[in-house]
Design a protein that fits this description.
Elements (H helix, E strand, L loop, with lengths): L1 H24 L5 E5 L3 E8 L2 H8 L5 E4 L1 H4 L6
Antiparallel strand pairs: 1-2, 1-3
Length: 76
């Protein structure tokens, strides 16, 4: 019984450890809000340049291409 509980707890911990990694990848869109407040690469949750510009409007931030997107290897 103890072995079964330990095995189930191990599987649950393994699944819980992999879930945040997949959720973090969802925030890696094409454009990043960058600047002194955001650092580098910045807040990379924008799919379009216009979305990023709208968020940066009125602040000292600017928009740039996500380096993970720009330097990723393309499948041919």
């Amino acid at each position: 019984m103890r072995r079964t509980i330990l095995t189930l707890a191990s599987f649950a911990a393994l699944i819980a450890a992999t879930l945040p990694a997949t959720q973090a990848q969802a925030a890696n869109d094409r454009y990043c809000l960058q600047g002194r407040m955001w650092g580098y690469p910045g807040n990379c949750q924008f799919a379009s340049y216009q979305q990023c510009q709208a968020t940066a409007s009125g602040t000292s931030a600017y928009c740039g291409v996500n380096p993970r997107y720009a330097y990723s290897q393309r499948a041919y």
